[in-house]
């Protein structure tokens, strides 16, 4: 079993990573560890309907067998549950089942369950402990670690929230077996982000991994552990997101704008971040910050992992100006200097606008050239027609 300690003084906690850790929660397994945190007080088990069916119910039973006074709170899957109404429903359930200050919230699910249950734990009786059992790839490598909890309001995503670190995080990569492919790919965008912005070795490992086998490819558990290690180290340095933690937002300024452009309906978060990383890398090259060739290498890796969508950069600037991270007339852009290295560049919105206009023109040229090329080479078009 891999153990990562997030060293945050009195808020320190362990992340345990092992295939079968949760699914095989026997007498000395994960359920006992979770039950031990509550020390006999009640446990609220929060999950969503999909995860409940895919292994949540079994873990709930294991918790009950471990002697915990546990009650289930099962929400509808999806972002629409992560709002103040959802928070209210959790609080009502906590009250009904008698969750006390010594009790525990156990969040088993993707980032939606983790963020909502985490925020409920942060606010219930002014704060109770919570444990995270992430079940989506995104939640394993990103949202379950670091203590950011929040709900959405109509004015924007994650606008009402709190920093509240979990007491324990249990990561079982075996749970990914039931995760839908689209959700797996979305999580891969965050995995590729860690490599591109922070760890060249991870990026190279991803280039050599058998993408077709997905989570079953040899060494994939180690890739998950690497990402968690990178995130844990950054959270230790900058728990409250006032400095270096911003590097984890590589691709996100443009990605958030793309999510917003389509009313959060066309792309998943990870798909939008993948497009955002493409734009950020091309932008960085165009303004002379990113080593030439980086964008092509990053785009090739995204393509290989099935994150193939492309979007023009036009129409994004107004949305970037509205981003909660924009200050005054400038925005902190995370740009790569080379693969594995990123920095924050505070850039006037007017400069971003000019840079994006240049990219839009270059993108138009690229599209025209590739259309002309495929029109001129009929043999290149044939395999595509027959294969798809
Ligand atoms: N707190 C943070 O630091 C942080 C970081 C990144 C993202 N987030 C938040 O995370 C959320 C997105 O998380 P997500 O992508 O996990 O979405 P999600 O929680 O909606 O899960 C995606 C879908 O997969 C299903 N699912 C999850 N695990 C499954 C499994 N093992 N088997 C079968 N189905 C499964 C869910 O039911 C859901 O339908 C967003 O709200 C975002 O704001 C938070
Ligand atoms: Zn993200």
Description of the molecule:
With 388 residues, the chain is an alpha/beta fold. The chain is 48% helix and 18% strand. The strands form 3 sheets. Strands 1-2-9-6-5-3-4 form a 7-stranded mixed sheet, with helices on both faces. A two-stranded antiparallel ribbon has the order 7-8. The radius of gyration is 22 Å and the shape is globular. Nicotinamide-adenine-dinucleotide (NAD) binds next to helix 2, helix 4, helix 5, strand 8 and helix 6.
Number of DSSP strand runs: 11
Helix content: 40-55%
Which small molecules are bound?
A: nicotinamide-adenine-dinucleotide, zinc ion
| Sheet having the most strands | 7 strands, mixed
The span between the termini is 42 Å
Work out the helix count. Answer: 14
On the 0-100 scale, what is the average pLDDT? 91
Order of helices and strands: EEHEHEHEHEHEEEHHHHHHHEEHH
* CATH architecture group name of the largest domain: 3-Layer(aba) Sandwich
Using the coordinates above, name the CATH class of the largest domain.
Alpha Beta
Uncertain runs with pLDDT below 50, 5 residues or more?
376-388
Strand line-up across the major sheet: 1-2-9-6-5-3-4
Percent strand equals 15-25%
Q: How would you briefly describe this protein structure?
A:
This protein is α/β, with parallel strands linked by helices and 388 residues long.
Secondary structure layout:
Blueprint: E1 2-6, E2 13-17, H1 30-38, E3 43-48, H2 49-65, E4 70-75, H3 84-97, E5 104-109, H4 111-123, E6 129-134, H5 137-143, E7 148-153, E8 156-163, E9 168-171, H6 181-198, H7 200-208, H8 220-237, H9 252-261, H10 269-286, H11 294-304, H12 317-322, E10 330-338, E11 341-348, H13 349-376, H14 378-387
Parallel strand pairs: 2-9, 3-4, 3-5, 5-6, 6-9
Antiparallel strand pairs: 1-2, 7-8, 10-11
Helix pairs in contact: 1-2, 3-4, 5-6, 5-8, 6-7, 6-8, 6-10, 9-10, 10-11, 10-13
The structure holds nicotinamide-adenine-dinucleotide and zinc ion (ZN).
The site of nicotinamide-adenine-dinucleotide has 30 residues, from helix 2, helix 4, helix 5, strand 8 and helix 6.
């Amino acid at each position: 079993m891999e153990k990562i300690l997030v060293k945050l003084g009195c808020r320190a906690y362990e992340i345990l990573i092992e295939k079968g850790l949760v699914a095989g929660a026997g007498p000395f397994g994960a359920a006992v560890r979770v039950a031990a945190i509550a020390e006999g007080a009640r446990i609220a088990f929060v999950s969503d309907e999909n995860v409940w069916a895919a292994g949540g119910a079994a873990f709930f039973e294991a918790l009950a067998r471990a002697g915990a006074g546990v009650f289930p709170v099962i929400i509808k899957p999806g972002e629409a549950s992560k709002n103040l109404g959802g928070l209210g429903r959790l609080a009502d359930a906590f009250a009904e089942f008698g969750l006390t200050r010594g009790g525990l919230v156990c969040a088993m699910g993707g980032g939606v369950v983790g963020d909502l249950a985490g925020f409920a734990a942060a606010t219930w009786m002014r704060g109770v402990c919570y444990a995270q059992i992430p079940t989506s790839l995104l939640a394993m490598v990103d949202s379950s670690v670091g203590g950011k909890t929040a709900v959405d309001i109509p004015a924007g995503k994650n606008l009402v929230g709190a920093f509240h670190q979990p007491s324990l995080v249990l990561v079982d990569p075996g749970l990914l077996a039931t995760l839908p492919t689209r959700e797996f790919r979305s999580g891969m965008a965050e995995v590729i982000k860690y490599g591109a912005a922070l760890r060249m070795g991870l990026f190279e490992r991803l280039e050599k991994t058998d993408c077709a086998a997905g989570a079953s490819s040899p060494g994939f558990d180690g890739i998950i552990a690497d990402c968690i290690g990178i995130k844990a180290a950054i959270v230790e340095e900058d728990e409250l997101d006032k400095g270096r933690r911003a590097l984890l937002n590589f691709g996100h300024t443009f990605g958030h704008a793309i999510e917003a452009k389509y009313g959060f309906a066309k792309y998943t978060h990870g798909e939008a971040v993948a497009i955002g990383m493409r734009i950020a890398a091309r932008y960085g090259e165009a303004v002379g910050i990113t080593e030439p060739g980086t964008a092509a290498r990053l785009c090739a890796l995204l393509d290989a992992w099935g994150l193939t969508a492309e979007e023009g950069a036009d129409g994004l600037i107004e949305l970037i100006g509205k981003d909660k991270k924009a200050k005054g007339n400038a925005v902190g852009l995370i740009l790569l200097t080379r693969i594995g290295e990123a920095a924050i560049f505070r850039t006037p919105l007017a400069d971003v606008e000019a840079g994006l206009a240049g990219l839009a023109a270059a993108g138009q040229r690229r599209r025209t050239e590739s259309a002309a090329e495929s029109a001129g080479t009929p043999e290149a078009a044939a395999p595509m027609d027959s294969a798809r």
